[in-house]
From TrEMBL:
It holds the Pfam family MIP. This is Aquaporin 1a (Colton blood group), tandem duplicate 2. It is a multi-pass membrane protein. It comes from Tetraodon nigroviridis (Spotted green pufferfish). One of its GO terms (cellular component) is membrane. The keyword Transmembrane applies. It comes from the Eukaryota. Belongs to the MIP/aquaporin (TC 1.A.8) family.
Length: 265
């Protein structure tokens, strides 16, 4: 709970709100900006996929040094499971993300009188199949986030925000035709609340959140947990990561740190 007294913590929470607001504004505007009749279905899907991919890459680059730019409850939960953030930060980030998504959806809704406002819906798949699609789409995204922000690696090349943006684009290209591609519960929550359409909404929480948890467990199993000591792990969950945690892990594992492209939260 020590984080709550730190002004940088609240600036990070605000950054999550602002980042999610911008992310949803750009994404939903891309969805409603051109009537489907004016574009082929494939062209519209590619346009929307690119918009979400470019938005997340841009915002990760812009806000990563302030909050880590999670901008996704599934990513935040994955980092909690990986013992990189505290319970308090996890809860505050998710609340900020949801509020940002609702605010953005309300803003975009004022631009149009009809249409779906990007409310996610299942198409040609059952609810169970939708959960599986959302699960795997989010799994690859959170795996990418964990991998490109791992300070223990010394082989990282290129841009972490760009890699994460490409991962978001991949998820959309694969899932948008079947589920509308949530892979982000807050993104699904905002339009659903504004349009009061909660049909199958649970799919867009269960699939992504389980995918985020699974990604953290898989990555920690394959690469090894960043925090080996149970007491240290518990301290992180209670009070947040210390500035020297990464250096301590590197020292004990005798690994030379690579270039960090995901600043400290």
């Amino acid at each position: 709970m020590a984080e709550i007294k730190n002004w940088s913590f609240w600036k990070a929470v605000l950054a999550e709100f602002v980042g999610m607001l911008l992310f949803i504004v750009f994404g939903l505007t891309a969805i409603i900006g051109q009537p489907t009749a004016g574009l082929s279905i494939i062209s519209q899907e590619v346009k929307v996929s690119l918009a979400f991919a470019l938005a997340i890459a841009t915002l990760a680059q812009s806000l990563g040094h302030i909050s880590g730019a999670h901008l996704n409850p599934a990513v935040t939960l994955g980092l909690l499971v990986s013992s990189q953030i505290s319970f308090l930060r996890c809860i505050c980030y998710i609340l900020a993300q949801m509020l940002g998504a609702v605010t953005a959806s309300a803003i975009v809704n004022s631009f149009v009188s009809g249409g779906s406002l990007g409310v996610n819906a299942l198409s040609r798949v059952t609810a169970g199949q939708g959960v599986a699609i959302e699960f795997f789409g989010t799994l690859q995204l959170v795996l990418c986030v964990l991998a490109v922000t791992d300070k223990r690696r010394n082989d990282l090349q290129g841009s972490a925000p760009l890699a994460i943006g490409l991962s978001v684009g991949l998820g959309h290209l694969a899932a948008i035709s079947l589920t509308g591609c949530g892979i982000n519960p807050a993104r699904s929550f905002g339009p659903a609340v504004i349009r009061k359409n909660m049909k199958n909404h649970w799919v867009y929480w269960v699939g992504p959140m389980c995918g985020g948890i699974a990604a953290a467990l898989i990555y920690d199993f394959l690469q090894g947990s960043r925090v080996q000591n149970f007491r240290t792990r518990l301290n992180v969950l209670r009070n947040g990561a210390e500035e020297d945690d990464d250096a301590a892990v590197l020292a004990t594992e005798d690994v030379r740190p690579g270039t960090s492209q995901w600043p400290k939260q």
